[in-house]
Amino acid sequence: MFTSPELLKLLLPEYLVAYFDIVKFEEKEGQLHIYFEEKNTIPKEFSSLHLQSKGFHEEITVDDFPLRGKPVKLHIQRRRWTDTKAGKILQRDWNLIAKGTRMTQDFAEFLKKISRY
What we know:
Blueprint: H1 4-11, H2 14-19, E1 20-28, E2 31-38, E3 51-56, E4 60-67, E5 70-77, E6 79-83, E7 89-90, H3 105-114
Parallel strand pairs: 2-5
Antiparallel strand pairs: 1-2, 3-6, 4-5, 6-7
């Protein structure tokens, strides 16, 4: 039997399921909008630092594979971290969108492949 995260990994980019929470979803004007917030867990690459979550960066919106014939918009908020000793603002290095597009990497690669035929 599938659990919710296992099923979500089949429908959404795996990193979103692992590192983000779905906070809202809705259908507007024939499009499916899914809203994500980065989980409040300190990134492994910063585990040696004393970090405190300090809100989010501005939301980005990217296109992903259609679901049930409906275009999908992913609204993603990445978390900001403050190093309490150094006072620096840090964030995970995400490659959420394909370079030069507003699409997920997987969706852009898929479109690139089908355009060759």
